[in-house]
Amino acid sequence: MRRKLLPFWNERKAKVSMLVLHAVAFEPKEAIECFRKYEVSSHYLIAKDGEIWQLVGEKHRAWHAGVAKWREFKEDINSCSIGIELCSSDLGQTPFTSAQKKAATALLQKLVKKYKIKPENIVGHSDIAPTRKVDPGKAFFWQELANEGIGWWPRLEDADKIKEGKIEDLLQIIGYDTTDIQAAAYAFCRHFLPGKVKDETDVSKMEKTVYRADKKLLDDALFVATLRATAYKYLSASKTPCKI
Ligand SMILES: [Zn+2]
User: Fold this and answer.
1) What's the pLDDT band for 244 if we cut at 50, 70, 90?
2) How many domains is the chain partitioned into structurally?
3) What are the residues whose beta carbon lies below 5 Å from ligand 1 (ion)?
4) Which is higher by pLDDT, 14 or 165?
5) What is the pTM of this model?
6) Is 68 inside a domain boundary?
7) How many CB atoms neighbour CB 105 within 10 A?
8) Where are the beta strands (DSSP E) in the chain?
9) Is 243 within the bounds of a domain?
10) Is 85 within the bounds of a domain?
11) How far is it, in rounded angstroms, from Cα 134 to Cα 187?
12) Domain annotation covers residue 244
């Protein structure tokens, strides 16, 4: 682990209960320059070779989430989370390196244990800010992490266990802010159904234009089944009060 501590932090106002995964389109040195320029930060940065850089101490509040919401966390997610960036030239459109996966898995396992993080609170930046953010990208290895006990992954055969339910309700069960349902539905796909996410090649454009699900996607049978299966998983495992 390398340490390159940045001054962009303040005191936490809540205990750590979320892990937020990000992607940054630079290698560590350039990424740190970029953080300095915009006065932002994260706790950890994982290079393509798997080396982990610590930028902010875990006990401090880093500045990585911005305006974001998830489940009961309606404001100041920076106060209750640890932010982890992974270097990816195309913001997670193509696979992360196996060295990054290995390093991230070990780090996440350690943090989950240390802070008793619930699986439903291990999220991507796009999950908590669906109208603004696309990272860590559709190639992020959520399913592989779930296989290692980090976060959850749905089983499609559970889709029928929730018979009814509007898309908005199902997204809310998982944790999404549905102020913009189409943006939330697309963020859901980035995490759980990456095959439905368009290839985005222009990194500068990706950061400015966040796509939303169109009507065709919202009616797509595989999307609806995956959403139901995921809602069932979160509902049954996290004991979310059932609204359906
Ligand atoms: Zn981010």
Assistant:
1) very low
2) 1
3) 22, 125, 135
4) 14
5) 0.95
6) yes
7) 17
8) 2-3, 9-11, 18-24, 44-46, 52-54, 60-62, 81-87, 122-124
9) no
10) yes
11) 8
12) no
